[in-house]
From TrEMBL:
A Pfam match: Ribonuc_L-PSP
Species in which this protein is naturally found: Sulfitobacter indolifex HEL-45
InterPro entries cross-referenced by the UniProt entry: RutC-like_sf, YjgF/YER057c/UK114
Designated name of the protein: Endoribonuclease L-PSP family protein, putative
Gene3D superfamilies, per database record: RutC-like
SUPFAM superfamilies assigned: YjgF-like
């Protein structure tokens, strides 16, 4: 098992890893991003996820499941172009949940589960 940290403030405060690699899979914790607009936060969260996946030996093409959490479901549609661009021709199974997030400034949180790339030992 491999644990990956991004150095985010909440990782230390709460005690969790950004991602964990186990059994040929990569489990990326929920990621939020900086910015005022939901689209800026979505883009920043995707960058954090991309980095964690790369360090683990995976990428967006190997994501099998994604969960989107937003305090206001009406804001989700604005993120769709960013999500289509990230996942391209490899769309994962997905769920969107309307819920409260850890900080009222957060407009979206994204978590993914991915397979390791073949060349990464998965």
């Amino acid at each position: 098992m491999k644990r990956i940290s991004s150095g985010g403030a909440y990782e230390e405060k709460i005690g969790y890893s950004r991602a964990v690699v186990a059994g040929g899979m990569v489990y990326v914790s929920g990621c939020v991003g900086e910015g005022v607009e939901v689209t800026a936060q979505c883009a920043a969260a995707l960058v954090t996820i991309e980095r964690a996946l790369a360090e683990a030996g995976s990428d967006f093409a190997h994501v099998v499941r994604v969960t989107y959490m937003l305090p206001d479901a009406a804001e989700f549609e604005g993120c769709w172009p960013l999500l289509r661009a990230a996942f391209g021709t490899h769309p994962p199974a997905a769920t969107m949940i309307e819920c409260g997030l850890i900080d009222p400034k957060c407009r979206i949180e994204i978590e993914v589960t991915a397979m390791l790339r073949e060349d990464a030992g998965g």
